[in-house]
Amino acid sequence: MRPTDSNSSALAAQRVAWIALVGAIVIMAMKFAVFAMTRSAAVLSDAMESVVNIAAAAMATFSTWYAARPADREHPYGHGNIEFISVGVEGTMIAVAGLVIIAESARRLWLGLSPEQLDAGMIGLGVINVLLFALAMYIRRRAAAIDSPSLIADGNHLLVDCLTTLAIIASLGAVYATGWVWLDPAAGIIMAMVIVYAGCRLIRRSLAGLMDESDLAEHDMIEQLLDARVAAGDILSYHKLRHRHVGTFHWVDLHIQLPADMTVADAHERASAIEYEIEQSLGQANATAHIEPPEHQH
């Protein structure tokens, strides 16, 4: 892969991260304004999650900038794993925020505190949710295009936030229609449990990346490519296929067997063609093929 491709992806990731950060700040301010108007436990849970959104967006901004730094002597594979660390920090913040919201909602349920101005609050949250959905879809689309783990996590988090805001609007509507004030803190607790679950999923994804867990879909894709090469007679066989992620970058190594009478130059050309095909199929990638004669495996 050409360095300019990696640099352009890094710059694109940083632009998206800044948009996410600014958008999160605007939405947080709007949600706290709705909370100040309604004094609703459910709205408070939504506003608190927006604080986490800002922290997550800030982490994504930093991690995409740091991941774009070139490889050096101490980090020969680059700095991309900072994105997995960012995802883990974000997941932890989300889970902790969910637990705090559960505690506050339980307190309000125990005291029987009642929300106010529910009709205006529902309209305000509706407007916020339209903006939030647009921001989440933009970040998810751009993050998928540049394959940024931290931005994908940020976009997914915003989409979860969008869904919880819809549920909170519904809970305010239920309180408005029935007068059952306990529904408000109860909704806050339910939404907080969803938030905790989302945080745990992000932590799981972070650990998978840091532990070099293979992407099975990508592994199958590489195997299909190599199987096609075997069927075409370009290589005799292959083995020791391994691949891993360092942030958005893919590293692949494998052993290929070629005819014993093939010259070094021809073998190198064949291996280079296979490496290039693998790299093109994965996007940002580096593939290394070790050449062996027939029936030579170790």
Keywords:
298 residues; mainly alpha; Alpha-lytic protease prodomain-like; Alpha-Beta Plaits; three-stranded mixed beta sheet; 3 strands; 72% helix
Structural features, described:
α2 runs antiparallel to α3 (82-111), α2 packs parallel to α6 (183-210) and α7 packs antiparallel against α8 (264-282). The two termini are 29 Å apart. With 298 residues, the chain is mainly alpha-helical. The chain has helices spanning 3-38, 41-67, 82-111, 118-146, 149-178, 183-210, 216-231, 264-282; strands at residues 237-246, 249-257, 285-292. The model has no long low-confidence stretch (mean pLDDT 81). A 3-stranded mixed beta sheet has the order 1-2-3, with helices on one face.
Cα-to-Cα separation, first versus last residue: 29 Å
Percent in strands? 5-15%
Enter the CATH topology name of the largest domain. Answer: Alpha-lytic protease prodomain-like
Count the helices. How many? 8
Integer-rounded radius of gyration: 25 Å
- Spatially, the strands of the biggest sheet line up as 1-2-3
Share of helix among residues?
over 70%
